[in-house]
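Technical annex, item 7. During the second reporting period the consortium partners agreed on a shared format for inverse folding records so that results from different sites could be compared directly. Each record opens with the tokenized structure and is followed by the designed sequence. A conforming record, contributed by the partner at site C, is shown below for reference.
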């Protein structure tokens, strides 16, 4: 049985900060979903155009496949991935769920007020994602539903608090 953590949320919410901390604390394999985006998706966002379902579909399938490969190899993982919609999370879960052995995908939603996240994006330099896309990220976001395995963290907590809380709630 392996666990696959998806740290989700809008751009600038702190996914990388939390996911890297959790992966380090647990010694689990880490990946950034942004590194799985085709260059065309990165270019589109950099031009200030939000991705649509078609842009995200192959990317989500690749990430789900990556987690399932690791599950099959008995390797626990932590990834960052916006995973904004329920249907996206269904794709991310699908390949791991199809394996025998009771492997788990756990979503950790880093969530908080628009103004806090906008302020952090403003202070960040050299990232392809423009602040102008934050509203579309919030518009697209669908909260975790009661039957989804996961939990919400408050972006206003310190990175250290967030990592500790995440680790406590992830471990079975
Ligand atoms: N809990 C926190 N408290 C204060 N600042 C934070 C916190 N978490 C992250 N930050 C800062 O906010 C900015 C965004 O964080 P981070 O890059 O981890 O977000 P992200 O969700 O991975 O972003 P993206 O998806 O756009 O790459 C960074 O400058 C980071 O240092
Ligand atoms: O689904 C999406 O729209 C994307 O994955 C974005 O969320 C960004 O890639 C990421 O957050 C970097 O800012």
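Designed sequence (site C submission):
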């Amino acid at each position: 049985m392996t666990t696959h953590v998806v740290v989700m949320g809008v751009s600038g919410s702190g996914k990388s900060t939390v996911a890297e901390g959790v992966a380090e604390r647990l010694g689990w394999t880490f990946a950034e979903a942004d590194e799985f985006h085709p260059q065309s998706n990165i270019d589109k966002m950099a031009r200030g155009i939000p991705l649509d379902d078609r842009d995200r579909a192959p990317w989500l399938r690749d990430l789900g496949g990556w987690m399932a490969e690791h599950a099959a190899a008995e390797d626990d993982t932590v990834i960052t991935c916006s995973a904004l919609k329920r249907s996206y999370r269904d794709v991310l879960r699908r390949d791991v769920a199809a394996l025998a052995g009771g492997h788990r995908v756990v979503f950790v939603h880093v969530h908080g007020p628009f103004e806090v996240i906008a302020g952090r994006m403003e202070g960040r330099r050299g990232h392809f994602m423009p602040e102008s896309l934050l509203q579309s990220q919030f518009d697209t976001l669908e909260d975790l539903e009661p039957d989804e395995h996961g939990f919400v963290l408050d972006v206003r907590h310190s990175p250290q608090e967030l990592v500790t809380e995440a680790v406590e709630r992830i471990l079975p």
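The CA atoms of residues 55 and 138 lie 18 Å apart. The first strand starts at residue 3 and ends at 8. All partners now use this format for quarterly exchanges.
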